[in-house]
Design goal:
Strand content: 25-35%
Number of strands: 12
Distance between the termini: 72 Å
Helix content: 10-25%
Shape: globular
Structural class: alpha/beta
Largest sheet: 5 strands, parallel
Strand order of the largest sheet: 1-4-7-11-9
Order of helices and strands: HHHEEEEEEEEEEEEH
Number of helices: 4
Length: about 220
C-alpha cells in the first residue's frame, strides 16, 4: 500500500470522562435538553422518543453525551429545579423490594415512593399504583423482572414515564409519557419478562394536583 497516497487518519482522543458512571441527575439534565429541543422543533417526536429511551438506558457519560452533541451549546444549561420541590436526593437509600412467587403483591394508595424499587414476579403478579403516591425525589426507578408472571405499573397522567426492557416469549411495554411541568416526577421502568408481562402506563383521569404544595407540606417546608 502506498502510504503517501493513503495517509492514515489520526485517531480522535477519547473523552477523559467518557467512562464515568452517569448519575440520575446527569440523565435528568440530558432529558431536559432533549425536552427543550423538542419544544423548539429541533427534534421531532420520534427522534425525541428514541433519544429519551437511550438516556435512561445509558450507564456512562460517554453514552449520554452523544445524544445532545448535535444540539446548540446554549441548550446545555438546564433550568434549575425549584429548591422547595424535592428533598435531598439520598443515593445511599436502600432499594425497596416487592416479590410475588406463586402469589400476588400490591402497593397502592397514599405512600412515599423510594428512589428505587426492585419488583420480581415468578408465577405471580405485582401491581404498583403510583396515582396517589408521594414523590419525595424527582426520579424513581423501578427494576422489574417477570418470569411466568406479571407486573403492572400505573402512574398519574401529569408525570413523565420512561424506560426500556425486553420481552422473551413475553411482553414488555412502557407507554412513554412526558409531563408538561418540567419539575414533575419522572418514573423509569426497566427490566425484562420471560413468558410473562410487564406493563407501565398512565391511569386515565388520575393527576397529581398542586404538586409543589403537596410536596412542601410532606417535606415540612
Amino acid at each position: 500500500m502506498d502510504l503517501e497516497k493513503h495517509p492514515q487518519k489520526p485517531v480522535a482522543p477519547a473523552e477523559p470522562h467518557a467512562g464515568i458512571r452517569a448519575s440520575d441527575a446527569d440523565r435528568d439534565r440530558i432529558a431536559d435538553i432533549l425536552r427543550e429541543a423538542l419544544a423548539l422543533g429541533r427534534l421531532d417526536a420520534e427522534e425525541h422518543s428514541e433519544r429519551i429511551d437511550a438516556v435512561y438506558r445509558a450507564k456512562t457519560m460517554g453514552e449520554l453525551e452523544p445524544l445532545v452533541r448535535d444540539l446548540p451549546a446554549t441548550s446545555t444549561t438546564a433550568r434549575p429545579a425549584a429548591a422547595h420541590t424535592y428533598g435531598p436526593d439520598n443515593e445511599t437509600e436502600p432499594a425497596e423490594s416487592m416479590v410475588a412467587i406463586f402469589s400476588s403483591s400490591t402497593r397502592k394508595g397514599r405512600w412515599r415512593v423510594g428512589r428505587r424499587t426492585n419488583a420480581f414476579a415468578l408465577f405471580g403478579s405485582i401491581e404498583i399504583d403510583l396515582t396517589e403516591a408521594i414523590f419525595a425525589q424527582r426520579t424513581t426507578v423501578i427494576n422489574a423482572t417477570a418470569i411466568f408472571g406479571s407486573i403492572e405499573v400505573r402512574v398519574p397522567e401529569n408525570i413523565s414515564l420512561r424506560g426500556g426492557g425486553t420481552g422473551i416469549f413475553g411482553n414488555f411495554e412502557v407507554s412513554t409519557l412526558e409531563g408538561t411541568d418540567a419539575d414533575a416526577p419522572v418514573v423509569v421502568v426497566n427490566g425484562y419478562s420471560v413468558f410473562g408481562s410487564i406493563e407501565a402506563k398512565p391511569k386515565r383521569g388520575k393527576f397529581i394536583a398542586d404538586l409543589n404544595r403537596r410536596l412542601r407540606k410532606h417535606l415540612g417546608h
